[in-house]
Design brief:
alpha/beta; globular; eight-stranded parallel sheet; TIM Barrel
Amino acid sequence: MAMHRRAFLASSMATGATVVAGVVRGAAESRPPIRLGFDNFALRAMKWNARQLVDHAVAIGCSSVFITDFGPFEGRLDDDSLGDVRRYAADRGVAIVLGSWSICPTSKTFKPDWGTADEHLALGIRMARALGSPAFRVILGNQSDRLTDGGIEARIADAVKVLRASRSRAVDAGVKIAVENHAGDMQSGELKQLVEQAGPDFVGVNFDSGNACWTLEDPVRALAALAPHVLTTSLRDTMIWQSPEGITMQWTAMGEGCVDFRSFFRLFAERCPGVTVHIETISGFPRTFPIYKEDFWRQFPTARAEDLAAFLALANTGKPIPPFTPPTEGKAEAERAYQLAELERSIRFCKDVLGLAG
């Protein structure tokens, strides 16, 4: 960005409050029900297996569970065992969507737990087919990859190679690969680039609203950019506010942050028909982005002024909130109770306020 960053940021905070307006103007007010579920990472402290996750979906009135790691299958990854889980869920009216972690071999987050990146992706595709999952969620990495040799562009190229190598396998299985905008790794335009380079016939997006904020994007604008490619979601609210160091944000339960989810879901209903909403509450801790420090912008060398202005306008609507601090004694029990409550409040908000269906 050519102009002095601090002057631009200060100006944007003062005048950018109307930038987001009109993104979804004209979207129909009436819409068909949107299927609702949850991401198992929202309840990570419970350490539940797949059947227990399905049972909880029934208990809170959800019709889908997004199992985003292989742990809940307790090592039984063969087709017969996965088929048993599929039938257990189907008998209770619950769909399963499957996910796992990095398939970019040069990402700082990649781990060889499931073999090479190609072997990991092949395993996930097979498991997704056995579970009846139409998509398999993967990630590239996290924000630290933006400062690696070659930057995020090089990591995108490496991930694209892995994805292309599995095209025939995915197509034959009837499974699409949903790449998530994860932990500040890719802005919406960069993820769109990855999908288009890999092949949108079999690669799409798992859209994460909280992670969009970590790349300094308003989730409504980020969704608008990625909507044609969205296959599934991991959603949470975010409170964003100005702080002495720059911008601070904290993920929250749905309806307790400053994201405009009414506009978000008008757009979602119009442009992502049939896509399930999965709630992934990861609440309770703040993160500060030192946007007034010049070095910070090495991570975002191609940031667009209009996107940043919209994000700062969103920050103007937020306020500081306290973090969740569990007691030293009984910490594990407190964390379990906190995660259960965050998810349940979010599901109620989605149903009662936003009009989503179970």
